[in-house]
Amino acid sequence: MITVVGIGADGWDGLTSQARQAVTEAGVLLGSARQLDLVPESAARKVHWPSPLLPALPGLLAEFGDAGLCVLASGDPMFFGIGSTLARLAGPENLRVMPQPSSLSLACARLGWPVEETTVVSLVGRPLDALRRAVLPGSRLLVLTADASGPARVAGLLREHGYGASVMHVLSDLGSAAESHLTGTAAAWEREGSALSVVAVECAADKGTAPRPLVPGLPDDAFEHDGQLTKREVRAVSVARLAPLPGELLWDVGAGAGSIAIEWMRTHPTCRAIAVESDPERAARIGRNAAALGVPALRIVTGRAPEALEGLPAPDAVFVGGGATRPGLLETCWRALPPGGRLVANAVTLESESVLTTWYGTHGGDLVRLSVSRAGPVGGFTAWRTMMPVTIWTATKESGA
Ligand SMILES: C[S@@+](CC[C@H](N)C(=O)[O-])C[C@H]1O[C@@H](n2cnc3c(N)ncnc32)[C@H](O)[C@@H]1O
User: Fold this and answer.
1) What ligand 1 atom has the least distance to the C-alpha of 326?
2) Under 8 Å CB-to-CB from 190, ≥6 apart: which residues?
3) How many domains does the chain have?
4) How many percent of the chain have pLDDT more than 70?
5) pLDDT number for residue 54
6) 264: Cβ–Cβ under 8 A, 6 or more apart, which residues?
7) Within this chain, do residues 91 and 160 fall inside the same structural domain, yes or no?
8) Does the pLDDT of residue 312 top 80, yes or no?
9) What is the rounded average pLDDT for all residues in the chain?
10) Domain named Tetrapyrrole methylase: which ranges (predicted)?
11) Cis (ω within 30 of 0) for the bond into 306?
12) Whose CA is nearest to atom 1 of ligand 1?
């Protein structure tokens, strides 16, 4: 059994009697130098975290796992902490976790914010652009930053994203004697913070900023594109049919501007996607769109399917937006899906439509045809402009198919 004790900036004084007993009775104490200094001397051997930590963890567990190991972690070990990694490596049944309030709980306590109404974004080891997905008018964000430049970088992103009016609270060194709380607007924020800060943001859009909700079907001009874009009405239907679930992986084959993969990922922070695009210029554009719309973790493969699909991790759903007529493409996508996996393919040309009709005949599912007309000015009047109809084949793989 491995014990994980959360310890706050108030150190030993803040620990429960149960946590103190676990530390006192430990055979080995593992933690950062700062955390190890917070607990009194005992018979325990004190071992400092090596750097880098992650690759060393399995070895440390093998060496000390049966020696009365007690791991010291900051705040709540299960909140963006070492506890989650240990649960994955050693199994939750082999862990006894004793949490302290997390920096997030302390921040909400200081601000009077209900924790459950906040959105948490960690920028530790993640690109700043990930914040954009969460920036919505009226939302309250709690941003974990990696260093003293964090608050100024968050403010810079908010200004650039059209949210300079947002109020920022930078709460530093929570729970310690040096605790501080600075408030200001993102528009005027320039100060550096402490290395240990939580940035709380009351998001407010500037005049003229169009909010980008998370429901699929963003306006077409939310994406940089060269015309190869699944238009918003068809895109909303296509993503709904792909039916994203938390943690699932999408292949967006023939990704164009990347809009399907991007909207898939925006539905949930744990949704993942791989965009496969044969045109290098478009592939570069997909990267820019993913960053601008807050999903910089989108993986982009520049290459021609089906060859480019080889070796990719198995998807939960596949969208085919281009290349359906290429020999072996649909076969490769279908084969890669697990039972319950969804395949959605769109066709505009008669050639690709006939491929989808054949697949519909052999694999079932459903075939729909969407014809969208948008009203626009004609002279001094308004008239319908009908876009090319799109045929959408959707199928769910049964086991053994
Ligand atoms: C209609 S666009 C897709 C639009 C995309 N769903 C979007 O909303 O941005 C089709 C794309 O498929 C790409 N494509 C066509 N055949 C391909 C293949 N075999 N492998 C990879 N990409 C392909 C084309 O370069 C083009 O960018």
Assistant:
1) 19
2) 152, 155
3) 3
4) 100
5) 86
6) 216, 239, 242, 244, 250, 252, 271, 273, 317, 319
7) no
8) yes
9) 95
10) 1-187
11) yes
12) 228
The CATH number linked to 72 is 3.40.1010.10
pLDDT at 10 over 90: no
Write down the residue that tokens 């791991």 correspond to. 71
Closest residue by Cα to atom 27, ligand 1, is 256
Q: Which residues, judged by CB distance below 6 Å to any ligand atom, belong to the binding site of ligand 1?
A: 228-230, 254-260, 276-279, 282, 304-305, 321-323, 326, 329
Do 233 and 119 lie in one domain? The reply is no
Which atom number of ligand 1 is nearest to the Cα of residue 286?
9
Residue 147: pLDDT band (50, 70, 90) is confident
Output phi, psi for 70, to 5 deg. Answer: -125, 120
pLDDT digits (tens, 9 = 90+) for 162-192: 999 999 999 998 988 899 999 999 999 988 7
Domain span holding position 55:
2-100
Q: Do 278 and 380 lie in a common domain?
A: yes
DSSP string, 8-29: -TTGGGGS-HHHHHHHHH-SEE
Taking CA atoms, 291 is separated from 232, 301, 363, in Å, by 19, 16, 37
Q: Which two tokens stand for residue 342?
A: 């969804």
Please give the number of the atom of ligand 1 that sits closest to the Cα of 230. 8
Q: How far is CA 191 from CA 46, 155, 181, 345, in A?
A: 37, 10, 13, 50
Express each pLDDT in 97-143 by its tens digit. 999 999 999 999 999 999 999 999 999 889 999 999 999 999 999 99
Q: Ligand 1: which atom is nearest the Cα of residue 257?
A: 9
Q: Quote the pLDDT of residue 400.
A: 64
Whether residue 209 lies inside any domain: the answer is no
CATH of residue 175: 3.30.950.10
Instruction: Return the residue matching tokens 């310890």.
Output: 7
Mutation test residue for ligand 1: of 277, 349, 352, 370, the one with most atoms within 8 Å of CB? 277
Report CA(375)–ligand 1 centroid distance (Å).
Answer: 27
pLDDT for res 18? 95
Instruction: Tell me which of 221, 223, 279, 301 to substitute to probe ligand 1's pocket, judged by most ligand atoms within 8 Å of the beta carbon.
Output: 279
Q: Closest Cα partner for 274 from 297, 300, 296, 255?
A: 300
